[in-house]
Amino acid sequence: MKIFITGGSGLVGQNLLEHPEASQHQLLAPSSKELNLLSADAVLSYLREHKPDLVIHCAGIVGGIHANMANPVKFFYDNMLMGLNIINGAKLTGVPQLMNLGSSCMYPRNAPNPLVEEAVLMGELEPTNEGYALAKISAARLCDYISKEMPSLSYKTLIPCNLYGRHDKFSAHNSHMIPAVIAKIHSAVKNGTREVDIWGDGEARREFMYAGDLADFVFFALEQFDQLPQLLNVGLGHDYTINQYYQAAAQALGYQGKFIHDLSKPVGMKQKLIDTTRLNALGWKAKTSLEDGIKHTYQFFLETPNHE
Q: Whole-prediction pTM value?
């Protein structure tokens, strides 16, 4: 297939490009300098020129609680505009299949866990990442509307749990939790620091999947695209506390100090565990353990000098 991947330089995009099955397809992954996804005209022109069989939309402005709270306009506007431009552009140019990547942030803050796909739009969103969530929900709904209005087009949305892995961001200002933890603990080990802080009491629960496993599912899903539901959670089906993630990273990096809890900091939702019933029915499971995932991610961190 000729596959157009948006966000090819990001966490998900890079893991797709380096997946063993990537060589079986013709992959188009233009950089932001080559294609401005915020320009509807540029996106339309690119799609008309290259005529892909499938679009995988995984581009986005992403980050943890700190970044979302500091830049709500950018997280809302840029993500909304990219989603609308890509999905509507694919419709206008007749791209037959589109795989849109959503986020578990789409779920209401008070929805019961595990989070079932039907819970989207059934309640108030978590305020710390509301703008990002609204953009992701809008893209998912547009896919649904197009598929119903134009049955010849099959546009579907995957809702991954939290991700981490190779090609992650490790900056304290725009990284997600696991890479931020790796960077903090690495710094503590390197500098002989005996204390590392944790936001909140560390009892909030999160589900983090290794990004290489999501890439594995994407290529698995290409073979049975017609069988995918309109909305599909992709995750582990089990979670850990924030404290357990810190402990796992400490063990992998050889940190011997202690952790202190900063109760003045925001923690977001108390739990965000997705339901994997639909995913399990397809016969797929993630392969990478938390311990191995952290080791692979840390190795990438060490191999990338500008992360130091």
A: 0.94
